[in-house]
Amino acid sequence: xxxxxxxxxxxxxxxxxxxxxxxxxxRTIAAAAGxxxxxxxxxxxxxxxxxxxxxxxxxxxxxxxxxxxxxxVTSLRQLLDVGRKLQVQERELGNVSIxxxxxxxxxxDPKLGPPVSQxxxxxxxxxxSVLRRLLAGSPFADVADLAGLAKAVSAAFVGIELFAGxxxxxxxxxxxxxxxxxxxxxxxxxxxPISRRALNAKINKAVRSR
Length: 210
Description:
The chain is mostly helical. The protein has helices at 3-19, 26-33, 38-44, 47-72, 76-92, 95-108, 113-134, 139-143, 146-164, 168-189, 193-208. It has one domain: Tetracycline Repressor, domain 2 (Orthogonal Bundle), CATH 1.10.357.
């Protein structure tokens, strides 16, 4: 990737963080990148296309930062610990604000919706990989939609990150509630074989009756 394109990608996020989605333009992006605004259109075609590319490239980089930590997680509670660390670091870096702006913009901009969704899917893939590994052999693995659960966990993390900006205590409360669920899963996994078979039967019966 050329230095100019990299500067434009970084400039797009910097402008988004500083001015908000309504203040992002070729001019504000170029100013943040330190280049001529005509280069926005030369390299990316439009401001929306530049924002889309910046969202994907930036998310790929952030996922890569945490990928090794996800790979070392051995329990759901450890996964939540990584989530807490991620929340603090991303907020300090201004990435939570950027995410909020992109999500808000994507609600009314059909061009931004798909790329923002694709970027979030990168996190979902990581979470799903962890869940499949942690829940292998668990009674929940046979009945849970792990792909859907990964989306739910990812959405919860995003919501908690945004929630923390307006209600830190409420965000902490939400994380504590998720930890209670993680403990419940661990307790179930520690049941003896007879109890686990009985639980499996009840879960399967409840699922079939839906």
